[in-house]
């Protein structure tokens, strides 16, 4: 799948959904979203292409869906709502996995070394988190998700309390940098509401512990810092 063939693929998917959906059954739509999300978070290059596919699908999904117990909705908004719910569920799951993998050492208050299985689980959760925030950012860039939707998803991984009061861990700095680097250049910085939402995250990244960050995180923070030096985005 490439940007050049997204249009035909979106039409085929929409036609397939139209043929396979009966009554108030949105199972097929959810299956499509699951597949697109999995592909989008499999690698960084796929995130942008899949976000463009989602934008196409938002305009092509047949307008005949009914959410159980609710009124009729147009196909596009139903797709967007299902996609947003998928992103939120995955973000909450990632946060839960990170918390579970680090719960033991945190509760003991000691510098306990994680077991091999715990390290693997934590590494996978971090990779999923990084991929998730990048895809969510791309969905904002192409206009599928609103700014508030994206921040809501991000706050399911890195809480507002942590953003406001704590220094970021190595991985949290990566998550926030990935998000800011993706969406930042496309947001209207002259908008006071956007500034109000962005500035706490910018400040959060600046509180990173330079002595303990990894080379990968250091590269992201440096890229973000360079963007600031070039004039975007400047915290109020």
Automatic annotation (TrEMBL):
InterPro entries: ARM-type_fold (IPR016024), MIF4G-like_typ-3 (IPR003890). It comes from the Eukaryota. Residues 3-206 form the MIF4G domain. GO terms for cellular component: eukaryotic translation initiation factor 4F complex. The keyword Protein biosynthesis applies. One of its GO terms (molecular function) is translation initiation factor activity. Keywords: Initiation factor, Protein biosynthesis. Belongs to the eukaryotic initiation factor 4G family. This is MIF4G domain-containing protein.
